[in-house]
């Protein structure tokens, strides 16, 4: 058969044209799939790249101590349902001016719901509920009452799921949430960084010994048959070896957890609130918190009334003489008496961690001051 260049062109030209089109289409499709992939919250590959580098020095620390994930979690965090803060709902009332029309941006603000710009990341039993409820009275703050546990337990549900949990907010309002387990969960700093590297992080810290006892008290209220605090504290009681895999002990090693956060966020983006001062001087701590968040100092002493029977500040309306509202009975439980020798052993154990923590934060929380 004779070769015909005309026939050849008729056949080749259209086929390469189609191939080119297909190629462009494939590229567009890949880009589109990648965009969707990122938008639904799986972009953790991005910080993970950074994370891999940053983790090198951290690996040591984590191998030495036990990671939060590997903790002997007798406290069963899964069941750690905090109250939803409804106690103070009526006080909050009309201070929340909602603007349902707030719509701007693709990622952050569709339907007037925003991803949180500030999160209370810990610590468990530090006073996180009180702080969130104080903040929820602020007209420039909108916060979800329940703990979303997005960055530790629900991350696979994606950012859209998370945002949908948030209350609607207007442009000038800050969206917030609190989940105290974030502070000690290894994966969380990278994930929050991935959502927004500008997220403001608040940690309410409390004397780690009292915190551990409070944590234990909560667990015992749900599971009365658990072993004594004293026996759980030690790996080997006669040798006096503290069990750092017990989450009640591990959470209080604040400096160790902070190292992980500082691999992603600068210190200026973290605020440490004293759990003790939140009780003795709530207005003072709230001034620091409001300044940190860049909102007006609205929640002042006028909002607090100390209830001597409860031993805690309760919230009141600044005007009028309506009854102050206190947090529910799961806050401020009576702690069991713990063997003073065990308490002292724990104090000694935490001392170097506390010292390091004071140095890192530039603030002496006074937990070791009696010695
Ligand atoms: N205003 C006010 N009212 C009641 N309780 C207050 C308040 N401020 C701080 N606290 C302390 O908060 C402790 C509970 O901490 P959290 O809210 O972080 O607990 S949780 O992790 O959410 O379960 C809780 O701990 P316990 O006293 O051990 O129960 C309180 O000491």
List keywords for this structure.
371 residues, alpha/beta, Rossmann fold, 5-stranded parallel β-sheet, 13 helices, globular, disordered N terminus, binds 3'-phosphate-adenosine-5'-phosphate sulfate, disulfide bond, EC 2.8.2.-, transmembrane helix, signal-anchor, [heparan sulfate]-glucosamine 3-sulfotransferase activity
* The first-level CATH class name: Alpha Beta
Strand content: 5-15%
> In the CATH scheme, what's the topology name?
Rossmann fold
Order of helices and strands: HHHEHEHEHEHHEEHHEHHEEH
Listed once per kind, the bound small molecules are:
3'-phosphate-adenosine-5'-phosphate sulfate
- Helix share of residues? 40-55%
Number of DSSP-assigned strands: 9
Radius of gyration: 26 Å
Number of domains: 1
| Rough outline | globular
End-to-end distance: 104 Å
Strand neighbour order, sheet with most strands: 2-3-1-4-7
Report the mean per-residue pLDDT as an integer: 80
CATH evolutionary superfamily? P-loop containing nucleotide triphosphate hydrolases
Low-confidence stretches at least 5 residues in length (pLDDT < 50)?
1-14, 34-71, 73-81, 83-87, 93-110
Secondary structure tally, helices:
13
